[in-house]
Amino acid sequence: MSQSPVEEMTRSVLIVDDEGNMRESLAAILLDEGYEVATASTGEEAVRLCDQREFDVVLMDVRMPGMDGMEVFRHIRRHRRGVRVILMSAYSVEGLKEAALAEGAIAFLSKPLDVEKLLRLIGEAKHTAVLVVEPDQETAGLLTVELKKEGYRVTATHSPYDALALVEQIRFDLIFLNMRLNAMNGYELYMAIKAINPWSVTILMAEGGNQLEELAHEAVRRSAYAVVYKPLDMPRVLRMVEWIAGRRASADDSKPPREL
Q: How many helices, marked H, and strands, marked E, lie in the chain?
């Protein structure tokens, strides 16, 4: 069995399922992979545990007696921002699946579980590598601090040439790119990065009412992810990054809903 990338510290997983055999089997697998594991047999117990301590990942069945998985998921989303939730079900529940993914779940898995896929999802839950290309130190510092607080790996540079050198050496999952740069504009840098690594997701940062804004939207038409405006709305930016990280882990490249 492949080893999950448990780095720097043991990451914690809460398993929530009313089926004892499922809890025990998943706990044994994750313990063997080096994770710290707790279990709960009911939604109410899961809520108590999440209120008492922080978990990196919650793996939870949807259908349980009493408080179901969706109710617990929504409680966690309200009170523990940054926890990654993976839902699972043995039943066909397309409506719930769509709702859960739209509200920020990493994945909605069908039982019986594909263990290798599950381990990949848990291992990658917070291993998103982010590059920030921003000449303004205040904005770069804000993005770096806030993203690191959420557990993302962040590299920042003010130079488009340094950004290109970094992209040639490191595969970044997400790139924040200011449209106003020295030596070249953000659109030119976006196209150069895309030629090197077409898989990276790019969010362009722009100011309204100028030609660079028009170029930013042209980049989106050419598959950049989105345009965000300065001054940055950090809660919205963090929700967008969480969405992207979850979709990346689930191999889903859909665009974020407008309300993010």
A: 10, 10
Dihedral in degrees, nearest 10, Cα atoms 107, 43, 240, 243: 0
- Kindly report the CATH number assigned to the domain that includes residue 91: 3.40.50.2300
pTM exceeds cut of 0.70: no
Whether 105 and 30 map to the same domain: the answer is yes
Give the three-class secondary structure for 230. Answer: coil
Count of domains observed in the chain: 2
Final residue in a domain of this structure, among 94, 124, 154 = 124
Q: Is 180 helix (H, G, I), strand (E, B) or coil?
A: coil
CA pair distance 82, 67, nearest whole angstrom: 22
* Tens digit of each residue's pLDDT (9 = 90 or more) over 112-150: 888 888 887 887 665 678 999 999 999 999 999 999 888
Residue 62: name the closest of 108, 14, 120 by CA.
108
